[in-house]
Amino acid sequence: MALIKLPGKSYNTDAVNPFVNNVFDNLFNDSFISDRLVTRVPAVNITESPEAFNIEVAAPGLQKSDFKINVDKNIINISVEKQEEKVEEGKTYSKKEFSYSSFSRSFTLPEVVDYSNIDASYENGVLDIKIGKKEEAIVAKRLIEVK
């Protein structure tokens, strides 16, 4: 039910034209449309330690082989493209939908990155990418004596 409020009056649109509201309710509650209105870009956490950067990508329901991680100059690109088709024999379909899961995330890497020290692992629905820093970029901790 939608209410339209005008200065001094309120109108119930269901009472005005219930057919129009039912059409729009059905249209936007259809799973075909509502599934496609939701953004499917996974959440990312990026942290930094003195030795490395860490990128965590929340991507449940995938396998290690689904991920493609590319580094080109100072850009790291994480992508997935997965197609699923459920086939049930002996059924007549009035509506059949394929499932595609894909995303791509890119991040610019700073100059301190050691490109030979990048590792990735996937466990419990989280892709974990560790990007090491160059030796000269790692700040050594030491105690400074006051003289």
How is the topology of this model organized?
Blueprint: E1 3-6, E2 9-12, H1 13-16, H2 18-29, H3 31-37, E3 44-48, E4 52-58, E5 67-72, E6 75-84, E7 99-108, E8 113-123, E9 126-133
Antiparallel strand pairs: 1-2, 3-4, 4-9, 5-6, 6-7, 8-9
Protein described:
The chain is α+β, with helices and mostly antiparallel strands and 147 residues long. Helix content is 16%, strand content 44%. The strands form three sheets. The chain has a four-stranded antiparallel sheet with strand order 3-4-9-8, with no helix packed on it. A three-stranded antiparallel sheet has the order 5-6-7, with no helix packed on it. Strands 1-2 form a two-stranded antiparallel sheet. The termini are far apart. About 5% of the residues have low confidence.
Average of the residue pLDDT scores: 76
Strand order of the largest sheet: 3-4-9-8
Gyration radius (Cα, Å) is 26 Å
Cα(first) to Cα(last) distance is 76 Å
Percentage of residues in DSSP E strands: 35-45%
Key attributes of the depicted protein:
9 strands; elongated; single chain; four-stranded antiparallel sheet; 16% helix; three-stranded antiparallel sheet; alpha+beta
Write a short abstract of this structure:
This protein is an alpha+beta fold and 147 residues long.
